[in-house]
Specification:
By secondary structure, the chain is mostly helical. It has 5 helices and 2 strands; from the N terminus they run αααββαα.
């Protein structure tokens, strides 16, 4: 199951944060087809947000074909995204790199800027 974390200072709409975090869990293999998402009530209790916000996020995910609502049962994952499981060796290498960056005194924003620059270099335009 996914635990949603809401950043009220991010400037990103709450429902969008839920959608993004669900998609990230799908990409990492933390959620798989058939898994049930937390109920709106469970999300509200954990995050203190409006239930309609949760339902809006779930409707967006359903519109994208990622989940399906089953009356009286909950909302279930229909399909996954990506192929980067949470236990990937690449993740371990990235964690080591992040640890070295932190030890070197880089701030989170510095690391994000470096990572984004590398992503832009390798994932823009035609594939390598």
């Amino acid at each position: 199951m996914v635990d949603y974390r809401i950043d009220r200072h991010s400037g990103v709409a709450t429902y969008v944060q839920i959608v993004q975090q669900t998609k990230q869990a799908l990409r990492l293999g933390l959620l798989r087809p058939g898994d049930r998402l937390p109920t709106a009530r469970e999300v509200v209790e954990a995050t203190a947000i409006n239930p309609n916000t949760v339902l809006k996020a779930y409707r967006e995910l359903e519109r994208e074909g990622l989940v399906e609502a089953r009356r009286g049962l909950g909302t279930f994952v229909r399909r996954s995204l990506g192929a980067a499981p949470a236990d990937s060796p690449l993740r371990a290498e990235l964690e080591e790199w992040a640890d070295r960056a932190r030890t070197a005194g880089l701030e989170r924003d510095d690391v994000a800027a470096l990572f984004t620059a590398v992503l832009d270099k390798y994932f823009q335009g035609d594939p390598l």
